[in-house]
Amino acid sequence: MTTLDLTPAPGAAPLPRMVLAQTGAEIRAMLRNGEQLLLTMIIPVLLLVGFSAAPLVDVGGGPRVNFIAPGVLALAVMSTAFTGQAIATGFERRYGVLKRLGATPLSRTGLMLAKTLAVVAVEVIQVAVISGVALALGWRPAGSPLAALPLILLGTAAFSGLGLLMAGTLRAEATLAGANLVYLVLLGCGGVIFPMSKFPDSVQPVLELLPISALTGGLRSVLTEGAGLPVAAAAILAGWAAVSLLITSRTFRWE
Amino acid sequence: MESPAVEIIDLVKRYGRSTAIDGLSLSATRGAVTAILGPNGAGKTSTVEICEGFRRADGGIVKVLGLDPSRPELRARVGVMLQAGGVPPAMRCGEWLRLMSRFHAHPLDPAALLERLGLTGHARTPYRRLSGGQQQRVSLASAVIGRPELVFLDEPTAGLDPQARHACWELVGDLRACGVSVVLTTHHMDEAEKLSDRVVIIDHGKVVAEGTPSSLTGAERQLRFRARPGLTLDELLTALPAGSAAKESPSGHYIIEGQVGPELLATVTAWCAAEGVTADDLSIERRTLEDVFLELTGRELR
């Protein structure tokens, strides 16, 4: 039998090492989960290809892919930061994983940092895949990617806040159902594929305040119209991020 | 002087209107194994989870390694085994232990720990596909991987098969030999008797007895045997030396207490011969911790 030296030698690892280890575990969990991949990679790419190729929706002038690609990028951010993160974290809470990690030297701040880094890393993969497919379909983005980056980061913060708010307060099953429902509703009425102009004038101003509409609208004005950073869209996303993260920090239950 | 591993004074914990812990005090010595014994709902898990920093006390003082349980520096010094769960179901158990090892400055080698606990062949198995006993061993491994000074084990052998139970006992013995303080909860009397330096029996959120296993069972011996149920013991009682007692508990199991010696033994066997009773498993032994436990906490199911 192996002899182990169990003599006490306690000590926490340096914070960056702990956070990177947890980030790696989170990324592997996301990429290994079939349902999550369906949501974060397969559905966005299918929508991109399908709606770019077939004239299913009237998107105005120009190549269809120029309209669809920014919407699908926004959808990808929502699927990872909101839907995927909400469901995964909800079940981690249910299975006592969050509780167990609370008994390790990794602090809660460290855990949240790792989750954020993992979401961003998966988004990098999503953006690479979706942009690659879109370029192959003839997408010619206007504007600077540097103007799109702050929107994506603000969108990530807003959707993470909303996802963690659900995960930290609802039962895991309720989070699963709710996060998928919200995903579908926001996919339908957030300007991802169907232009906002298709909705009645009376509901448009309300729909435009949704985080998904701000992200799709903002990305489109940068990548399709070549505008600089759209301040209104950034402000809406920042507002959602601030409010949702504040409420989450007050209500999140670890058990 | 070095503070005790755990010191609890007048701990109170309420859940809504019910009081789970009601003025509990106990102390766990450094480098020793302390067993907290009690029936379901006695307050064992609540007590341990307050020490682990998962729950807040409603009253009293709790010090773990001399510190308030909420202090972050304790997370590296204290190892925790939860009663259930805590590992992502899809994660491979080798991967989980490697992750846990990355949180510590001088961790045990995850592969060596897996081998020690007989899990090497399952390093690539997702946690949810492991048997209950294997899952328990993964939790046990997570509790010790950071080479802590103090380990809390909440029912470490619940639901384990005999091999896994012995593997767990051996690891606890090794921890003790290496100077690690261990606090464990259990329902198993043999576990408490075998493993611990000190036993604390709690019931209804209070300590009802504590001491070394032998001080709790006492030096007094009993004569026990099995026979057909429902024997009339009156005649035996009159024949026994004064101050002796005889009872049937449970049905078909007879216990004679008193000055257990050759004379008492002869009296009992003579009575058996006269009554035509064949006494099975006749033995003279000390009270077990189980007897003490049932005496203190009652026999009714809960």
Overview of this protein structure:
The complex is a heterodimer of chains A (255) and B (302). With 255 residues, chain A is mainly alpha-helical. Chain A has one domain. Helices cover 73% and strands 0% of the residues of chain A. Chain A is built from 10 helices and no strands. In chain A, helix 2 runs antiparallel to helix 3, helix 6 runs parallel beside helix 10 and helix 9 packs antiparallel against helix 10. Chain A starts with 14 loop residues before the first helix and ends with a helix. The model of chain A has no long low-confidence stretch (mean pLDDT 93). Chain B has 2 domains: 211 residues, Rossmann fold (3-Layer(aba) Sandwich); 68 residues, Alpha-Beta Plaits (2-Layer Sandwich). In chain B, the strands form 3 sheets. Chain B has a 6-stranded mixed β-sheet with strand order 5-6-7-3-8-9, with helices on both faces. A 4-stranded antiparallel β-sheet of chain B has the order 11-12-10-13, with no helix packed on it. A 3-stranded antiparallel β-sheet of chain B has the order 2-1-4, with helices on one face. With 302 residues, chain B is α/β, with parallel strands linked by helices. Chain B contains 11 helices and 13 strands. The two termini of chain B are 42 Å apart. The interface between A and B is large, with 34 and 43 residues.
Most extensive interface, chain pair and sizes: A-B, 34 and 43 residues
From the spread of the alpha carbons, the general shape of chain B counts as elongated
The radius of gyration of chain A is 20 Å
Name the helicity range of chain B. Answer: 25-40%
Q: Helix coverage percent of residues of chain A?
A: over 70%
In N-to-C order, the SSE pattern of chain B is EEEHEHEHHHEHEHEEHEHEEHEH
What's the number of domains of chain A?
Answer: 1
Summed over residues and divided by their number, the pLDDT of chain A gives a mean of 93
User: What is the makeup of the main sheet of chain B?
Assistant: 6 strands, mixed
N- and C-termini, Cα separation of chain B: 42 Å
- What is the average of the pLDDT values of chain B? 90
Question: What does the main sheet of chain A amount to?
Answer: none
Tell me the overall shape of chain A.
elongated
| Class of secondary structure makeup of chain A | mainly alpha
* Total of helices of chain B: 11
Distance between the termini of chain A: 37 Å
Number of helices of chain A: 10
